What does this fold into?
Amino acid sequence: MLENSLLQENISNNILVMVIDDQSTMRKIVRQLLSQIGQFNVIEAANGIEAMELLSDNSRHRIPDVIISDLHMDGMDGIELCNKLRLSKKPGVKEIPVLILTGENDDFILKVSQQVGAFRILAKPLGSPELKGHLSAALGFEI
It folds into this structure.
Protein backbone atom coordinates (compact mmCIF):
# COMPACT_ATOMS: atom_id res chain seq x y z
CA MET A 1 0.00 0.00 0.00
CA LEU A 2 2.83 2.39 0.88
CA GLU A 3 4.51 1.65 -2.47
CA ASN A 4 1.30 2.57 -4.34
CA SER A 5 1.04 5.83 -2.36
CA LEU A 6 4.65 6.72 -3.18
CA LEU A 7 4.06 5.96 -6.86
CA GLN A 8 1.01 8.26 -6.95
CA GLU A 9 3.00 11.01 -5.21
CA ASN A 10 5.82 10.68 -7.77
CA ILE A 11 3.31 10.88 -10.63
CA SER A 12 1.72 14.07 -9.29
CA ASN A 13 5.19 15.60 -8.72
CA ASN A 14 5.64 15.60 -12.49
CA ILE A 15 2.26 17.12 -13.37
CA LEU A 16 2.15 20.85 -14.11
CA VAL A 17 -1.22 22.49 -13.42
CA MET A 18 -2.06 26.07 -14.39
CA VAL A 19 -4.69 27.63 -12.12
CA ILE A 20 -6.45 30.68 -13.55
CA ASP A 21 -8.82 32.80 -11.49
CA ASP A 22 -9.16 36.53 -10.93
CA GLN A 23 -9.69 35.95 -7.20
CA SER A 24 -6.51 35.07 -5.31
CA THR A 25 -8.66 33.33 -2.67
CA MET A 26 -10.01 30.91 -5.27
CA ARG A 27 -6.51 30.22 -6.59
CA LYS A 28 -5.47 29.43 -3.02
CA ILE A 29 -8.47 27.09 -2.55
CA VAL A 30 -7.64 25.22 -5.77
CA ARG A 31 -4.01 24.92 -4.64
CA GLN A 32 -5.22 23.46 -1.32
CA LEU A 33 -7.46 20.97 -3.13
CA LEU A 34 -4.53 19.95 -5.32
CA SER A 35 -2.28 19.51 -2.28
CA GLN A 36 -4.87 17.13 -0.78
CA ILE A 37 -4.55 14.97 -3.89
CA GLY A 38 -0.77 15.06 -4.38
CA GLN A 39 2.25 17.30 -4.84
CA PHE A 40 1.64 19.05 -8.13
CA ASN A 41 3.71 21.75 -9.78
CA VAL A 42 1.38 24.75 -9.98
CA ILE A 43 1.59 28.02 -11.86
CA GLU A 44 -1.03 30.72 -11.47
CA ALA A 45 -2.56 33.42 -13.62
CA ALA A 46 -5.08 36.08 -12.62
CA ASN A 47 -7.00 35.93 -15.92
CA GLY A 48 -6.91 34.60 -19.46
CA ILE A 49 -4.66 37.40 -20.70
CA GLU A 50 -1.99 36.62 -18.13
CA ALA A 51 -2.35 32.89 -18.84
CA MET A 52 -1.85 33.39 -22.58
CA GLU A 53 1.22 35.54 -21.88
CA LEU A 54 2.69 32.76 -19.74
CA LEU A 55 1.87 30.15 -22.38
CA SER A 56 3.41 32.17 -25.21
CA ASP A 57 6.60 32.90 -23.23
CA ASN A 58 9.25 31.04 -25.24
CA SER A 59 11.62 30.93 -22.26
CA ARG A 60 9.20 28.44 -20.66
CA HIS A 61 10.19 25.01 -21.88
CA ARG A 62 7.18 23.22 -20.46
CA ILE A 63 3.51 23.80 -21.02
CA PRO A 64 0.94 22.80 -18.40
CA ASP A 65 -0.46 19.28 -18.47
CA VAL A 66 -3.87 20.62 -17.47
CA ILE A 67 -5.51 24.00 -16.85
CA ILE A 68 -8.11 24.73 -14.18
CA SER A 69 -9.79 28.02 -15.01
CA ASP A 70 -12.61 30.14 -13.71
CA LEU A 71 -15.32 30.96 -16.25
CA HIS A 72 -16.02 34.61 -15.41
CA MET A 73 -12.93 36.83 -15.21
CA ASP A 74 -12.09 40.39 -16.18
CA GLY A 75 -9.89 40.89 -19.22
CA MET A 76 -10.34 37.47 -20.80
CA ASP A 77 -12.88 34.98 -19.50
CA GLY A 78 -12.70 31.19 -19.60
CA ILE A 79 -14.66 30.91 -22.87
CA GLU A 80 -12.33 33.27 -24.74
CA LEU A 81 -9.32 31.55 -23.15
CA CYS A 82 -10.46 28.12 -24.39
CA ASN A 83 -11.08 29.54 -27.85
CA LYS A 84 -7.59 31.11 -27.98
CA LEU A 85 -5.96 27.92 -26.71
CA ARG A 86 -7.65 25.82 -29.39
CA LEU A 87 -6.46 28.26 -32.08
CA SER A 88 -2.89 28.45 -30.75
CA LYS A 89 -0.01 27.71 -33.12
CA LYS A 90 2.42 26.89 -30.29
CA PRO A 91 3.07 23.13 -30.18
CA GLY A 92 1.10 21.36 -27.46
CA VAL A 93 -0.97 24.35 -26.34
CA LYS A 94 -4.13 23.57 -28.27
CA GLU A 95 -4.23 20.08 -26.73
CA ILE A 96 -4.09 21.18 -23.07
CA PRO A 97 -7.23 19.90 -21.31
CA VAL A 98 -9.13 22.76 -19.66
CA LEU A 99 -11.31 22.22 -16.61
CA ILE A 100 -13.66 25.17 -16.14
CA LEU A 101 -14.51 25.69 -12.47
CA THR A 102 -17.60 27.84 -12.09
CA GLY A 103 -20.68 28.71 -10.10
CA GLU A 104 -22.49 29.45 -13.39
CA ASN A 105 -25.69 27.50 -13.98
CA ASP A 106 -26.89 29.00 -17.29
CA ASP A 107 -27.07 26.00 -19.66
CA PHE A 108 -26.35 28.12 -22.74
CA ILE A 109 -23.11 29.52 -21.29
CA LEU A 110 -22.02 26.06 -20.09
CA LYS A 111 -22.69 24.55 -23.55
CA VAL A 112 -20.71 27.34 -25.22
CA SER A 113 -17.83 26.59 -22.84
CA GLN A 114 -17.80 23.00 -24.02
CA GLN A 115 -18.16 23.98 -27.68
CA VAL A 116 -15.03 26.16 -27.52
CA GLY A 117 -13.01 23.30 -26.10
CA ALA A 118 -13.42 22.99 -22.34
CA PHE A 119 -12.73 19.38 -21.35
CA ARG A 120 -15.19 19.52 -18.46
CA ILE A 121 -17.28 22.07 -16.58
CA LEU A 122 -16.92 21.67 -12.80
CA ALA A 123 -19.46 23.17 -10.41
CA LYS A 124 -18.36 25.13 -7.34
CA PRO A 125 -17.95 24.10 -4.59
CA LEU A 126 -15.69 21.19 -5.50
CA GLY A 127 -14.06 18.64 -3.23
CA SER A 128 -10.65 17.02 -3.67
CA PRO A 129 -12.05 13.52 -4.50
CA GLU A 130 -14.13 15.02 -7.34
CA LEU A 131 -11.19 17.09 -8.58
CA LYS A 132 -8.95 14.01 -8.52
CA GLY A 133 -11.43 12.15 -10.75
CA HIS A 134 -11.67 15.03 -13.22
CA LEU A 135 -7.89 15.47 -13.32
CA SER A 136 -7.41 11.75 -13.93
CA ALA A 137 -9.93 11.87 -16.81
CA ALA A 138 -8.27 14.97 -18.31
CA LEU A 139 -4.78 13.48 -18.07
CA GLY A 140 -5.80 10.02 -19.25
CA PHE A 141 -4.40 8.14 -16.25
CA GLU A 142 -5.17 7.63 -12.57
CA ILE A 143 -3.44 10.05 -10.22
The chain is about 45% helix and 15% strand. The chain has one domain: 14-139. The radius of gyration is 15 Å. The helical segments are 2-13, 24-37, 48-56, 78-87, 107-115, 128-139.
